[in-house]
Amino acid sequence: MTNIKTVAVIGLGYIGLPTAAILATNGINVVGVDVNQNTVDAVNRGEVPFVEPDLGVHVAGAVSQGHLKATRETPSAEAYIVAVPTPFRDDHSADLSYIEAAARGIAPQLKGDELVILESTSPPRATRHMADYILALRPDLSIDGANGAPVIHFAHCPERVLPGRVMIELVTNDRIVGGITPVAAELAKELYGVFCQGEILVTDDVTAEMAKLVENSYRDVNIAFANELSIISDKLGIDVWELIRLANHHPRVNILQPGPGVGGHCIAVDPWFIVAAAPEEAQLIRQARITNDSKPEWVVAKARKAAEAVGAAPVIATLGLAFKANIDDLRESPSIGIAAELAEQLPTAKLLVVEPHVEALPAALRDRANVELVATEEAISKADVIVVLVDHDEFKSISPAAYAGKTVIDSRGIWGPDSHAEAAATAGLAVN
Length: 432
Ligand code: SAJ
Description:
Layout: E1 6-10, H1 16-25, E2 29-33, H2 37-44, H3 55-64, E3 68-71, E4 79-82, H4 97-106, E5 115-118, H5 126-137, E6 153-156, H6 166-172, E7 175-179, H7 182-192, E8 200-204, H8 205-236, H9 240-247, H10 270-277, H11 283-310, E9 315-319, H12 334-345, E10 350-354, H13 363-366, E11 371-373, H14 376-382, E12 385-388, H15 393-396, E13 407-410, H16 420-427, E14 430-431
Parallel strand pairs: 1-2, 1-4, 2-3, 4-5, 5-6, 7-8, 9-10, 9-12, 10-11, 12-13, 13-14
Antiparallel strand pairs: 6-7
Helix pairs in contact: 1-3, 4-5, 8-9, 8-10, 8-11, 10-11, 11-12
Bound molecules: ligand SAJ.
The site of ligand SAJ has 20 residues, from α8.
């Protein structure tokens, strides 16, 4: 049981807003803070400015009960949860400027005994950096009560929820909380216990930071293995989907699925924080990033070759822009770069881009004369070459027969690992 009754959540994005909403629907008084006035206004109307299943119901309910409101100014609260972006710079080192900006908002509000949680995925020692930053602004406060100074409790509690399942996983996933002091960890554990039904595991701040990075690196390394297999299989003239399906019958083998590259704001980013912290040692983790980041180029080369085989003015359909299936999130999506690169490299081709979850093309594709956003059926019927970039259900539900006579570059295995080879054979497709 926590004694905390008021929480300020700094950053109302894909993680901050769900966390604010779930705390609020569990009776905590939450103030969400965001620099974006449109986000603040949307939340205060009980609306969600992005797509995430079930989040709308929680936000609308919390706002109408009076437990959730949004503002641009950081208020006074008993606990602060910082959920702001931590992008990386060109040299792959982490940009902590959003965390520092949040800290500047929090520092003047502190009186002593507050809990300050960093939830943003961060490089090792970012929580300590945030604490040092706040204490430099407020030398009257301390981490441990030295010289009788009032104590501020600092902890790191990384989120592990999967976009598309956030409201379920916030409640059911186990959670790691790491405190700069054991008391901070315990206070954070009590606060997350308000809504988290999974196990809440307590450790120190740096181990918690690393645990989050390691989870995503584990996935990145395994996706890199699958992506490398798809390139090897192509060279050997075998179907990678069948290969993986067969190998996965082994009781201790579970190979992930190849794709056009790794997108999203986590898996394509977090491993670099480990590489930056241990450049000499993190060999495999670095190579996985390089392997996954080079997959889009490989897909572009294959699609280009297929298009050039059609003639001087081929029509190419690219299916999907989101970074993965059944979401509208385009962040770090390899599909956008692939479509843009095809438009650039093949100026006489017509590119029909399909993304059922968005209404307008993203900036990288918007002003290109040879690119148009169209509906799925139109793209498939008009195209000579079809490049499948996302395994949205809408694409999977189309009969393989609709693709007959076209060249299909299927980077996702949309007919599923169990039926891909069979579907390809039935429709008589040139499936790569
Ligand atoms: N992908 C493949 N092949 C696969 C699985 C994924 O190519 O077999 C690609 C996806 O298409 C996508 C990218 O990888 O482009 C990442 O997708 P994802 O579903 O693996 O993960 P995210 O980025 O949506 O969410 C991850 C999750 N981390 C892990 O599964 C270890 C989630 O639990 C984290 O909370 C989230 O990162 C985060 O915020 O860090």
